[in-house]
Amino acid sequence: MLSPRQSNRAAASALAGNTIEYYDFIIYGLAAALVFPTVFFPVGDPAVATLLSLGTFAAAYLIRPIGAIVVGHLGDRIGRKPMLVMTLVTMGGSTLLIGLLPSYESIGIAAPLLLVLARMLQGFSIGGEYGGAILMTVEHAPPGRRGFFASVVGLGAPIGLALANGAFLLATLLPGETFMAWGWRLPFLVSVVLIVVGFVLRSRLDESPDFQRIRELGARESAPLSTVLRRYPVVTILAALSSIAAGVVVYLLTVTNLTYSVTEVGRTRTATLIVVVVTMLLSIPMSLAAGKAADRFGAPRTFVVGSIGMLVAVFPWVGLVSMPPLVSLFAGYLLLIIPYSVLQGVTGFFIAERFPVGIRYSGMSLAYTLGMLGGSAVAPIVSQLLITEYGTLVAVGVYVSAMCLLSATAAIVLLWLPKPIEETLPVDQAAPTEPSRGPVPRASG
Questions:
Q1: DSSP-assigned letters across all residues of 216-245
Q2: d(Cα 433, Cα 360) in Å, to the nearest integer?
Q3: What's the CA gap between 321 and 412, in Å, rounded?
Q4: What does each C-alpha distance from 34 to 152, 185, 384 come to in angstroms?
Q5: Exposure of 6 in the CB half-sphere (CA atoms within 13 A)
Q6: 309, 313, 164, 321: which is closest to 257 by C-alpha?
Q7: CA 40 – CA 3 distance, rounded (Å)
Q8: Strand extents, DSSP E, 276-350
Q9: How much is the pLDDT for 232?
Q10: Is 436 left (phi over 0), alpha (psi -120 to 50) or beta?
Q11: Using DSSP, how many helices (H) and how many strands (E) does the chain show?
């Protein structure tokens, strides 16, 4: 039987690692907009330099599916713990490399090439991080509290966001020339402290009890990804579709409206950023409450409520944030952050339940990464194109509402599909009379 210490240690290590991953990921995005066009892409035209810099930000999303596939496969074959240590070290090492990189002025074309390499390592790492962190926590959690413990891991996103923005706000207090010369490197370099803490926590953690069980029974899958694609294709697609809305909304809150609020409404960047950070911190207790609700009412039902809540809140949010008073911006963010927090708290647990233990790392990582590609990866571009074309957030509201409706529909379908039977034998040794591990193989034809 699991001890409370084991469960708490698993949740703490997953939260620490997930926070570090998001901190590292987000400070890159901030630097890509504020610093990298000058330091690594001095092409003469500032607009072209910015596009090149943001292109390196997008490069991580192209490599994330590869990270999800490779790390997910190894996580189902070798174990959850070594993969979580590996993703943390990879992310930390690439972030440290960015902080130490010489400028274009010093080493020429090698500087942006090394920057792209480091960014791709970040993408590879985060592709396998989230699924493993959720699984290590859920599979260590006591019965009846898996939803709550999984929601703790989801807090890494708002905490990482707040820390990253805070670090850059402090760095920008330096004189302009100093900041551009070396001050921008500080948020990257101080992440080493967080990485050491995360490494110590993860290296002291026991392997997942669920994985140990199937390893002792000789029930590990030889090709977990193949099994996911063969037996659970519809579940994987529906899980990916269900996670799109949260990815779209978080970038709407943290990227799209940051630009719109400053350039179109006339607020200061600092004031808007403070509202973003404060509301993200307020999402922490809301996400924990959502995790408790998932334990009581089920993750699918809780997830559907959050998806529908975001659908209802989008257009009131558009109206409020388009008004100049700062209090309107805060009210709009608070309105949308409530249903978003529900999804943030239950998404990991919701997707993890859709796959049996032997293929859970592969299935969850693939589904979540595909959802982020359809959501987070394209949301800033689509939103900016719509604002440029129509000059208002209303068009963006239509786009976000469509994504929320899509996710809610996918979640409702998953709500009616039975959860898989927990496997104790490899697939090819299962008894012929055993109930189906999911209706997907027949449904997918």
A1: HTT---SSHHHHHHHH-HHHHHHHHHHTHH
A2: 23
A3: 30
A4: 31, 12, 18
A5: 13
A6: 321
A7: 50
A8: none
A9: 92
A10: beta
A11: 23, 0
DSSP 161-192: HHHHHHHHHHHTTS-HHHHHHTGGGHHHHTHH
| Nearest C-alpha neighbor of 64 from the set 99, 90, 40, 93 | 90
Q: What is the pLDDT of residue 143?
A: 84
d(CA 70, CA 319): 43
The amino acid that residue 137 corresponds to is T
Residue 24: strand, helix, or coil:
helix
Closest by CA position to 308, among listed 421, 415, 199, 385: 415
Q: Which pLDDT score is estimated for 422?
A: 52
Residue carrying structure tokens 């921008």: 184
In this prediction the pTM is 0.81
Q: What are phi and psi of 18, to 5 degrees?
A: -65, -35
| Three-class secondary structure of residue 149 per DSSP | helix
Using 50 as the pLDDT threshold, list the residues of the chain that sit under it.
Answer: 423-445
Distance between CA 371 and CA 350 in Å, rounded? 14
Q: How far apart are CA 79 and CA 133, in angstroms?
A: 12
How far is the C-alpha of 140 from the C-alpha of 1, rounded, in Å?
10
Q: Which residue's entry shows tokens 């902080």?
A: 99
What are 388-408's pLDDT values in tens digits?
A: 788 888 998 999 999 999 999
Tokens of 159: 């905490």
pLDDT for position 286: 94
Burial of 59 (0-12, 13-18, 19+ CB in 10 A): middle
Closest CA to 9 of 116, 126, 149: 149
Residue 414 half-sphere exposure toward CB, CA atoms < 13 A = 33
Please report where in the chains the tokens 């809140």 appear, as a residue: 313
Tokens 């708490």 belong to residue:
8
Q: Are 210 and 420 in contact (CB under 8 A)?
A: no
Measured distance CA(36)–CA(168) in Å, rounded: 14
Structure tokens at 252: 């709407």
Question: pLDDT tens for residues 65-102?
Answer: 899 999 999 999 998 889 988 988 888 888 899 999 99
